[in-house]
């Protein structure tokens, strides 16, 4: 029973790690990356659709993205959605494709992005701690229902804390890696 609880905790905490990785992929660094724009919601025939479902996104040069819509009628909607996003970049529309040239990040913008990374990592830590709290509550309920002994409950709590510490360390590592990417020129 405890092994199932540990397995559940690990899979839920891994979910928090995956969410953080997806969030951080959308934060721009000095290099162009398709993940920067692929989740931008574009209004397409009255429905909000992620950009990656409407177009192919490539990186022809280190500081530029090329977006080729599958349907040319979506070109203006894609351009508007990118302009409305919080990326702070201006796309150019040549009638067939949308090009995005990423300017060099200013020191001030880098610091702002690093703060954003710290905030997202903290949200991940909170999510992992909430999972720990839920699992420990579950363990205590099992103990009250006499499904596990008091010793097993204590062992379980220690193991859950160990798992929590591992996942918080993973979140920190991911955050530090992203911070280094942002600070590189």
3D architecture notes:
This protein is an alpha+beta fold and 185 residues long. It has 2 domains: 2-25 and 106-183, Ribosome-recycling factor (Topoisomerase I, Chain A, domain 4, Orthogonal Bundle), CATH 1.10.132; 34-101, 2-Layer Sandwich (Gyrase A, domain 2), CATH 3.30.1360. The protein has helices at 2-25, 75-84, 107-144, 150-183; strands at 41-44, 47-50, 55-61, 64-69, 91-93, 98-101. Strands 3-4-6-5 form a 4-stranded antiparallel sheet, covered by helices on one side. It is elongated. The N and C termini lie far apart (50 Å).
List the helices and strands and how they pair.
Layout lengths: L1 H24 L15 E4 L2 E4 L4 E7 L2 E6 L5 H10 L6 E3 L4 E4 L5 H38 L5 H34 L2
Antiparallel strand pairs: 1-2, 3-4, 4-6, 5-6
Helix pairs in contact: 1-3, 1-4, 3-4
> What do we call the CATH topology of the largest domain?
Topoisomerase I, Chain A, domain 4
How big is the Rg?
22 Å
The number of domains: 2
Q: Please identify the structural class as seen in this structure.
A: alpha+beta
Please give the count of helices.
4
Strand order of the biggest β-sheet = 3-4-6-5
Q: What is the arithmetic mean of pLDDT?
A: 89
Q: What is the helix/strand order? A: HEEEEHEEHH
Q: What overall form do the CA principal axes indicate?
A: elongated
Sum this structure up briefly.
The protein is of the alpha+beta class. Helices cover 57% and strands 15% of the residues.
Give the key terms.
about 180 residues; 4 helices; 2 domains; 4-stranded antiparallel beta sheet; 6 strands; alpha+beta; Topoisomerase I, Chain A, domain 4; two-stranded antiparallel sheet; Gyrase A, domain 2
